[in-house]
Amino acid sequence: MTADRWVPEARLRGDLPVTDAASAAEHVPDDATMLVSGFGSVGYPKAVPLALAEADRDLALTVVSGGSVGSEIDTALVEAGAVARRYPYAGTPEARAAANEGRVATSDRHVSAVADEARFGHYGPPDVAVVEAVACGPDWLVPSGSLGQTPAFVEAADALVVEVNEALPRELALVHDVWTPADPPQREPVPLTDPGERIGSPRIPFDPAKLRAVVRTDRRDDAYEFRDPTPEVEAVAANLRAFLAGEVGRDPCPGRLRMQFGVGSLGNAMMAELGDLDAPVEYVGEVIQDGLLDMVDAGDLSVVSGTALALSREGQDRLFADLERYAEALVLRPAEVSNAPGVVSRMGVVAVNAAVEVDLYGHVNSTHVEGSRLLNGLGGSGDFWRNAALSVVAVPSTAGDGDISRVVPLATHVDHTEHDVDVLVTDHGVADLRGTSPRERAERILACAAPEFRDDLRAYLGRAGDEGHEPHDLPSAFDWRA
Asked: Annotated region Disordered: where (predicted)?
């Protein structure tokens, strides 16, 4: 199928209720469930959340986003005491502190499930959607730098407020492919058979009776700042590349790699290692980072399918200056399509994500430090790891300047069980866990730990003994250093 590649002729079309941010914010009830656009800290509303934060109101909002958003929501609104509940991600230090201190009730959710959970009122009746766009008409809008859950939020909410961001090019319409599923039990499979296929439209339609306000803005998203890779990160990337080179030509990679990487400096660094692999590479994931633009420019990547443009300022400028060319390769889909279990499985994705820690039997902690302190959010890692053809944990073996081992006897919090992980890659090697028993996994994972921690990990296994399917010495599981 071929999508409509239409670009709007103007930012605003028709008779629209254009107003200022403070007036638009009055359409958000004090205790509203407010659904906001945004994913990967891209494409979120800015002016209306700031107006809410500055308003002299007793707000107790439930804020639901597609993924992480910027400081206007997760800092200003939180610090104003306006947020009572937050789903599904705590993306700023202020939001994490509020969650860890119990000031904001937070629940982490799998990205692929958020759209339905909003539709069906799991977070409360969806009162209002506040979303960012690059253009708007009386019954349609064109999203900005992400799709995320925006189509589902616009559909579900009783009322709609649109921020039209004039700092972003209208030509972003060229990369959007909006397709939404029917509700169960009438839901059919996503009709996507190739990662470069377009099955929808660049516009999100809505009932014109919902539209309460349109606010004109001109403020870009905060840009990603990718750190220079450390020697440890470079070693992880090199080990991953060597492993993937050996996988090409065998299942699930029959001469082609369809990759997904988590957002961040580690994922960006690993992309740079894929250019000279002896196989065509396609990206089928969530977030589109600078490294993927580099691969498109080098001719090493023909398809980039995701749901958000998580780019540095230089990456944003490069994309916006040549959108028509990049749009031949780039496509943004709703998260309930990009992360759909059936789509991930059908595409044969090799999913590569990082972690806080991995235990000796392969259980993965992605979100909490010392078992209780929320660090970030689950994001889409569960959607991809559980449904990918090959699931890879890629992470340096240590944290805290080498003082903390990321390989531990027993994970203090489990986001992904041993059943969802196929391979561990660290700066010290690769543990291929496919087809292994728990005791075999422990030996392979131990070999990927930093050398200075291996003796203590080996001593732990000795104390655990031979009893049980996954032997543990629980009294020392969290105090295992000699």
From this structure: 184-203
